[in-house]
Amino acid sequence: MEGTYVGSIDQGTTGTRFMVFDHSGEVVGNAYEKHEQIYPEPGWVEHNPVEIWENTKAVVTAGLADADLDASQLAGIGITNQRETTIVWDAESGKPIHNALVWQDRRTTDRVEELEADGKIDGIRAKTGLEADAYFSATKTEWILDNAEPLKLQSSRAQNLRERARDGELLMGTIDSWLIYNLTGEHVTDVTNASRTMLFDIHEMAWDDDLVAEFDIPEEMLPEVRPSSDEEYYGHTDPEGFLGAEVPVAGALGDQQAALFGQTCFDAGDAKNTYGTGSFYLMNTGNEAVESDHGLLTTVGFQMSGEPVQYALEGSIFITGAAIEWLEDVDLIDNAAQTAELARSVDSTDGVYMVPAFTGLGAPHWDGRARGTIVGMTRGTRKAHIVRATLEAIAYQTRDIAEAMEADSGVETTSLRVDGGAVKNDFLCQLQADILQTDIARPEVDETTALGSAYAAGLAVGYWDTIDELRSNWQIDREFEAEMDAEEADRMYGRWDDAVERSLDWAREE
After folding, report:
1. Residue 421 assigned as binding residue
2. CA angle 203, 209, 214 (to 5 degrees)
């Protein structure tokens, strides 16, 4: 496949990126576009799906131009996406019936508390590997079907949305499905994204009848579930469409599983942490779905064509990079790069702890009503202390997950592969090594989410023959070793639990 490349659409929480990779996994083309964050009410977060699709077309076109390539030179396209974010759209027109409900959206917290009161949490966890939470797609889809304005028929009679869904007129999907549908006309998702809906039995690898009934989501509207790397392809782009070429769309992975794949964590015990809007720590557990006793999620890691599913344990931290964005929003910093300089300007936080629970707390606490908290301030507290406390909070939250991961898996973490925008910050990487007392390995290509979906598509179309080829592509940019004394790390981490305690169960209706 000389002279050909693989493209990856990386549709994230704050924007959409298209990257083109060559056979050695090097980036040859890159384009990015932000989209609007919509906050209709406190705790509600939405995106405009049409804007996301328009931006996707724009970045694919721009990324190919950046690489000076024609679309016909793409051997295949992979997709990676913000997980759990949910869209319902009209099958005929392709138009969404409501804005996408974003994974951060908390509007269905009451519904989750109903499930808890009804004693249904354990049953959901047993089938899906997930904690029942507003984070996942099930309650979001239910909310849209209950609350979106019904589309008007030609007779001007409003028809019930569930009736329309049962008649095959409405489709539901996460962002991967939305993009695959617009690219190929096919209604498909991959196993990793299906496993994040709270509607999918990860042991049977099928939509679960009881869960579909619980949320009254017609099964007719659910996408077909396919392997993450699919030699039968999800479909092809329309040669008459915006690309002007028939390109196979053959791989998809939720963003965190894509990063696991891009970091070549193909074996049981391999682990990575991605620092994006939130942070997501995943450990490959092989063909065994390891049940967590410490607040972690059991999830599908990936599936190759014709091969068994590989599972993962996951610690989901909702807010890390978004905490740095908040520092910028309130004018404590001008840009993210400034955080390292400010944090270094003080020796410590002077006892200040920041808990960035802006949309509740994920693993291992799972408190949808927790809210952001700063404690320990005095009259001498300066912005440098708050900035440093914010970076420390990222490291503490990761240690929460690492300790839970070790307790569940019995595997001690000796090295953690990291990626995402925040790992460009050397101060944060060193701090993370110190707080974890573990080596941190940062790869040369830190956009491993996009790389992972490119690998999935490339394997499916034969651009790469084996995963060993991919392993040889992985190169370390820099390794960070713990420099802090273990007792000091434990002392700093010891007050973190006290700070978290003060953030819990804050957002109560009057």
Report:
1. yes
2. 115
